[in-house]
Write a structure and sequence with these properties.
single chain, 438 residues, alpha+beta, three-stranded antiparallel sheet
């Protein structure tokens, strides 16, 4: 969440940032936070004054009794008792203001960086790089025309999956429901090969592998910003008040909740393979057919904890890592800088990676790589201490998909189909042991 220092010292910038993110009622929300903060501080000041007066009077009681001024002593005792009762009410006011302040802050999204483009929807996202052509600052999704020609008819991945016995969507419906496919034979092997390839590449890049739980408590969901913003998209185990994770970002980043790190430990680089679960309520139609949108899927996540001074460099390194994976998989891709209105609730800046599906004739998102600035760290109380300072400061947190498997599998099948079978990219051959799926 935003810090009170940001809100009070950079009020106009914060409001402008929220408006760039198309957050309705930005000014009113900030004014409400400031009003609650004033109430909290006024209650604290009154409580401090109350306690100071009560302490001073308490000291007088012994002296009055010693001097035989019993009536005055009893009257002073009554004043102290009255002050203590008033203190209870002031403490209750302060506690309520604290709760109201946190609630109000949690309803306000992060503000975007200055270089995030204006825009309200996906069409306004800027295409900053592509494997297909040179891009300029005027390229947006809305005016993008460089789509590769499809010289021959291509089968979509759900038909290829059936043809080569790779994925059984109907069996998934039988066992669980729509959005829970069953991978079989070489389809399961392809999943495992991709997981091992992505983890091996992350290891080469210096990421420490984590195997976290796939179920988290509410505090963890709150810490990374999924709660309360995306509560409806998460599977909730009501009896235990646990949540199935939507991404490994949640458990891995929460490793550093309520932790003060030493500056020399940063940047911390973690990666994790997990199953991920998203309800995707209201999703239907051709855009969710096959592997395009699932309720359960495999993903490798990379997470960094860094200093404010170095986090932008970390973000660049993460973007280069994801791009390198797509290049090694020989997939046509483009990189989008998301506009303010299409950013997530918690991100300060986000780049999406999309790969082109030849059979479907459209681009599919396979990764988002975000810098959250101090927004998550403030919720997590994730801090670090500089060598020359006793006071800890908030870290920056970053994360990205490297990569999510479903749409990678879809485009690998669709883009590599031949008369002999589905060609396996060279980078995956060592992990599969064969170069054609037939």
């Amino acid at each position: 969440m935003l810090t009170l220092k940001q809100i009070n010292e950079e009020t106009d910038r914060v409001i402008a940032g929220l408006e760039k993110k198309h957050f309705k009622g930005a000014k009113e929300a900030i004014e409400n936070v400031q009003a609650i903060d004033r109430q909290r501080r006024e209650a604290q000041q009154a409580l401090d004054a109350n306690k100071q007066e009560a302490n001073q009077l308490a000291k007088q009681i012994g002296m009055l009794m010693k001097n035989g001024q019993k009536e005055e002593a009893e009257a002073t005792k009554a004043k102290v008792a009255a002050l203590k009762e008033a203190a209870k009410e002031l403490q209750a006011q302060q506690d309520q203001a604290e709760k109201d302040l946190v609630t109000a802050l949690c309803q306000i999204p992060n503000i975007p960086y200055d270089n995030v483009p204006e825009g309200s929807a996906a069409e306004d996202n800027r295409v900053v790089k592509s494997s297909l052509k040179e891009c300029d600052e005027n390229d947006t999704v809305g005016n993008w025309t460089a789509i590769p020609e499809n010289a021959e008819a291509k089968l979509p991945h759900w038909e290829l999956a059936k043809k080569y016995n790779l994925i059984d969507f109907d069996l998934g419906v039988k066992i669980t429901g729509a959005g829970f496919p069953v991978y079989t034979g070489k389809g399961a092997q392809l999943q495992r090969a991709l997981i091992n390839f992505f983890l091996a590449e992350a290891n080469k890049a210096g990421y420490t592998e984590i195997m976290p739980p796939t179920v988290v408590n509410a505090a963890s969901g709150y810490g990374t910003g999924q709660l309360p913003d995306k509560e409806g998209q998460m599977y909730h185990c009501e009896l235990d008040d646990f949540y199935l994770i939507p991404t490994a970002e949640v458990p891995v980043t929460n490793i550093y909740r309520d932790v003060i790190l030493d500056e020399k430990e940063l940047p911390i680089k973690n990666c994790a393979y997990t199953q991920c679960f998203r309800r995707e309520a209201g999703s239907y139609g051709k855009d969710v057919r096959g592997l395009n949108r699932l309720h359960e899927f495999s993903k490798i996540e990379i997470v960094r904890i860094d200093t404010p001074e170095h986090s932008q460099e970390s973000h660049k390194e993460m973007l280069a890592h994801v791009e390198g994976l797509l290049q090694k998989l020989e997939l046509p891709y483009r990189i989008l800088l998301l506009c303010g209105g299409d950013q997530s609730f918690t991100s300060a800046i986000c780049y999406d990676f999309e790969v082109y599906s030849e059979a479907q004739g459209r681009w599919l998102e396979v990764s988002s790589v975000s810098n959250f600035d101090t927004y998550q760290a403030n919720r997590l109380k994730c801090r670090y201490r500089k060598a020359d300072s006793k006071k800890p400061e908030l870290c920056h947190t970053l994360n990205g998909s490297a990569l999510a498997l479903p749409r990678i599998v879809a485009t690998l099948l669709e883009n590599n189909q031949t008369a002999e079978g589905i060609r396996v990219p060279k980078a995956l051959v060592p992990y599969l042991g064969y170069d054609i799926i037939d």
